[in-house]
Amino acid sequence: MARLPRLTLANMPHHIIQRGNNGAEIFVDAQDRQQMLDLLREMARRFDVDVHAYVLMPNHFHLLLTPHSDQGLPQFMQAVGRSYVRYFNNRHGRSGTLWEGRYRGTVLQAEDWLVPTMVSMDLNPVRAGLVQKPGDWSWSSYAANAGLRNDALIMPHTLFWALGNTPFARDAAYVAAVEAGLGSYVQERISHAALRGWALGDEAFIEKLQQKTKRRITRQRAGRPPKAV
């Protein structure tokens, strides 16, 4: 079966996942992780992409971002991917591919899925057993979005700003959302959509989105729960 082209639309949030080849580690130490963050920041400026959230895991990373042109996202990911592989291979004396094929990801309905996707990303190190609390993992945007530190990479989405009328209220609301966690169904929807490339949103969102692209954006009727994967 021919694989679908990536679903990329300007001015809409996208959840992106890039994995290491065969589950191999893509970050050996803090220097590697900092190099990735530096590249993300540089390329986000170059290709006019707003990064709302991120988490760097040992063998993959997640991004939540909004490109401001239809080609901004693929150009951004290509530039980050190529630059990081060149750096990583040179530093660690290796050659060949680092990534497990092309990145995965999709468009999501911000009103319903922006904050849950951020929460899912911040809880990833906890689910993986790397830390006990999201704030204990240094390589995510949790601290920035919880108001604990400044992060030059992060550009908050307008709906994130709407969580509170003051920075304190907004930070507290986000921390509360992370502490509340996600149900298994919501987590499954988020993961399934990004890995399969299907748009994440309600029926009205799916129908409106389908009018903007010839590419199929859902495998099944909107609203039907996905099968477990």
Automatic annotation (TrEMBL):
Annotated InterPro entries: Transposase_17, Transposase_17_sf
Domain called Transposase IS200-like: residue spans: 9-124
TM region positions: none
SMART domains: Y1_Tnp
PANTHER family in the cross-refs: TRANSPOSASE IS200-LIKE DOMAIN-CONTAINING PROTEIN, TRANSPOSASE, Y1_TNP DOMAIN-CONTAINING
Protein name: Transposase
